[in-house]
Amino acid sequence: MTPDDANIARESPASTARSGVSVVIATYNGAKRVPEVLAALAAQTAPAGSFEVIVVDNNSTDGTAAAVESDPATAALRARGVEVRVVSEPRQGVLFARLKGVREASAELVTFLDDDNLPDPDYLSFGMRQFDDSTLAMINSKVEAAWETSPPPSVLRRRHLFAVNDYLGDSPRDFGANGSFAPTVTAGMWVRREVFLAAVPWREPKNLLSGRVGKYLISGEDIEFGVLVGMAGYRRIYNPDLRVKHRIPESRLQTAYVRRLIEGIVRSELTLKEKYLRERAGLLAKLIAFAQLAAAPVIGLYRGDAKRETAFIAAAAIARLKGPFRRAK
After folding, report:
1. How far is CA 74 from the centre of its chain?
2. Average pLDDT, stretch 243-249?
3. Are residues 111 and 237 in the same domain?
4. How far apart are CA 243 and CA 113, in angstroms?
5. pLDDT digits (tens, 9 = 90+) for 121-131
6. Does residue 29 have a pLDDT over 50?
7. Are residues 248 and 274 in the same domain?
8. In 3D, which of 165, 228, 239 has the Cα closest to residue 198?
9. 295: domain range?
10. Count of domains observed in the chain
11. Which of 195-227 are b and which e, b meaning 16 or more Cβ less than 10 Å from the residue's Cβ?
């Protein structure tokens, strides 16, 4: 056990929580991005005493904490009586940052925003009203892409890989109170803090998918949160009336980035299926992956945007051949 693990094991989250919601913003080198999120929170219609803002600085090197403290939106929030705190999480990785934020939260509800997420003005007020049903523990917002530049067709076909879920449509969905896999996205996710801390093994984060760690694009921690909350016997829903914009810069449209993103997501999905469904990729799955790899150029030509499409199909096939992330078993 490392010193960090020992510190986590000794921590005991507060047993009582005030009403309202804690907004947890995990960020790494977000000095230029977080201010826009803070401005969106300053524009919320929710009463000041009903929410707090916790920015989790995940080992940033660009002065993120100072940027938050000096931002006009922070001053505006505090002038209204909204507590804004910056807490540090030195262990690199978005999972560690989010767990830190939940542990630091003082409200009964937690909502996660990334440092490139812009919630609608009624996001907090509307979200808090949805938890009258005691069987409900997780709500997923409708997250729409705000592309800096128009994506090529091969990327647009895969927009679900960019933490957006507008493809789920404009009708609510109930994913049930069970351990089924559901398209839960951490951006814009709402949880009951008490349920989350009971269902998710936060004291042993090595037992969870790590999420992004720098340029290492492991994914799936959002799906795992949903599985664990469902296994604990609580409902998870999608409510499209909760709306968040996800700003996606042009740099994330680069072929090399999308290939790494595809590999991380495919291998994370395989990891979760092996872990919770006991599904292991056998010989047939490997043969299918080899066939997809061989057919990638032909499929790319058929779909258009051939060069990128071929690269992305090949990335998915190679990820299946590599298999799960063994360290997350």
Report:
1. 23
2. 97
3. yes
4. 12
5. 999 999 999 99
6. yes
7. no
8. 228
9. 259-328
10. 2
11. bbbebbebeebeebbbbbbeeebbbbbbbbbbb
